[in-house]
Sequence to fold (225 residues):
Amino acid sequence: MKKLFIVANWKANKNQNDARLWIESFGEEIFSNDSLLANKEVIVCPAFPMLSLVSGYILANNLKISLGSQDVSRFDEGAFTGEVPASILQGIVEYSIIGHSERRANFSETDEILSEKTKLALNSGIVPVFCVQGVDTPVPTGVTIVAYEPIEAIGTGNPDTPENANNVALKLKEKYSFIEHVLYGGSVTSNNVGSFVSMEEISGVLVGGASLDAGEFSSLVKNAR
Ligand code: PGA
Fold:
């Protein structure tokens, strides 16, 4: 059975109360269904202020869920008001989404900036989940997990075809020998997740909208096989 990464990207959603309800509800699903996470690494990526709330619950209940941030600063520790550098995230998250197309588009993050972020994350022992929009997006050296996320598929309800995503995944691995896992992201739901993860070259999914409801997300995790 291949290992699958299932990443929940909450984006700029969920206040304290919402985050608590979600993790309690998803936590219960895991408790009542031992085999749910058999070969799966579930990575929850809340907004920065919710990281400790979610991680507290995971630790207290000994849940097999990993934490990720949705971004990381391009700067190291120091006089950078408002920034959250990798050295501060170290020990709190295991993963960080880097280069999401929403950050490229809304915050002018260039390939150069994203390569600086990647380097700092790796230096702090954080595994980047590096987002690309296709084979032409440059991938910085050392990235082992890439998420292929075609822009037209994000939040639209129009996912790419599993066959095309598989083809892109293969091409990415051929182009960059350091890539170990390619995930697919863009309108993944509990109904279509199986068609993506059953593709030979796809090792999981990055989920936005369908990760916001704990029930839908548990079904998605269940159906990822
Ligand atoms: P979506 O978002 O699942 O809502 O399409 C995916 C993403 O942006 O990572």
Observations:
- The beta strands are 4-9, 40-45, 65-69, 95-98, 127-132, 145-148, 181-185, 202-207.
